[in-house]
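Section 4.2 – Deliverable D4.2 (structural model, holo form)

The reporting period included a commitment to supply a predicted holo structure for the target in complex with N-carbamoyl-L-aspartate. Inputs used:
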Amino acid sequence: MNFEGRDIISAVDFSKEDILQIMQVTADMEKVCRAVHVSSLLSDKLVAVIFWEPSTRTRLSFESAIHRLGAKPLTVADPKSSSAAKGETLVDMAKTVEGYVDCIVLRQSRIGGAKEVAEAVDIPVINGGDGAGQHPTQSLLDLYTIQKEVGTLEGLKVAIVGDLKYARPVHSLCYALSHFSPEYVFCAPDALQLSEEIEADMKKRSIKFYKTDRMDEALQADVFYMTRIQRERFEDPSEYDRLKGTYVLSLEHINRAKKGIVILHPMPRVDEISVDVDTYPKSAYFRQAHNGVFLRMALLALIFGRA
Ligand code: NCD
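Output (structure tokens):
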């Protein structure tokens, strides 16, 4: 598949071939990320990095990737410092910025906002998270991490735990990993289970899955993917207070989990993985965050036709 000029909006858009190609280029980037010849690969490119929701990993790993490839970022990380604060629409902002840069990386809070922008401009748009919608680049770095930590993507039992309703990395992961015949354990309190839409898609594709609210059942998987309960998405703060702290993974759980279980988390964590779990060798969440740089280097190189 030719990625040149393509938007990255939703994991629904990736074919298995797309994903395998991205994984290959990501592995190449990991090898050469500090090499001199790579540091000028995109030296003629400017990339707008517009983040209207909080971010540490996604924004900084994009900026790191942009710098490592010799491109330059134009960053707006605070909506109050842009004309959004004056009431400018997302689309007007994007149609303006389109004249200044060669690609837009965008995080904002409205589901579908990135798609709207992609339709309004001619340069490539990368969705860095649209509210409780999608986070496609996160799911790609998740797959890359699983491939590295487990050795394969095929036929794995993967438990996804926590906030499956609002955590956008979950939505993207479900679509991206489903090309590799997984069996899912969806572990969440009833109020935070997976949407009917994604569940219907799993059924249509004959993906094996079951739902539970018992974390013990999730411990028998090959990969345990923990998520944060997304406080900022709750309309009723008392509902968040009721659900926070539902699951806390500790070292004691790992001792009775499937041997070799890989622990992932898109991060940031609040309290859902206790710090003692960091000592377990297969806790891969910091490595996962680091892989974001290689993955985002790969995507930028592909989008600009220079991979
Ligand atoms: C996630 C996000 O912003 O969706 N973080 C990230 O990009 N690594 C997950 C979260 O905030 O819980």
